[in-house]
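Predict the 3D structure for this chain.
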Amino acid sequence: MSSALDRLKNLTNKISSYERARKDNLVILQNLYSELGIHQKVEEFNELFNFKAINLSGASLQSESLGEIKKGKYLQILAIGYDKEAVVKSKNVSLGYFGKAENVDVLLKNKIVEFIIRFRFEKSFMTLEHYHVMLESFQNVE
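Done. Predicted structure below.
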């Protein structure tokens, strides 16, 4: 019985930790949104999450080489929108262009990478919530 209680406590602590991390993440993400000038392209912060994804050209987003510059490339934040009514469903939108990747200040580059990782972190929670709600519809089906 004690091990079941310990597992429940661990799970509760983990969930609580994720919720705190998510809340803190949103505050920092919103600050980066303003600091990087993304508010000039996307007027409302919450509209960011209408994009399917946000990617980066000019630097790596892979964990083993996070932030590593790709020489000869341009550092640019690209959002991927989706319009199911349009002929071309997927549309890339530039949210920020920062010039040649190797010429961008390291602190700025790191903030850009952080912005994208923080966006993806929040977007993953939104996706999780979306599928959780969808699965609820199966609970009443017998």
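The first helix runs from residue 2 to 35.
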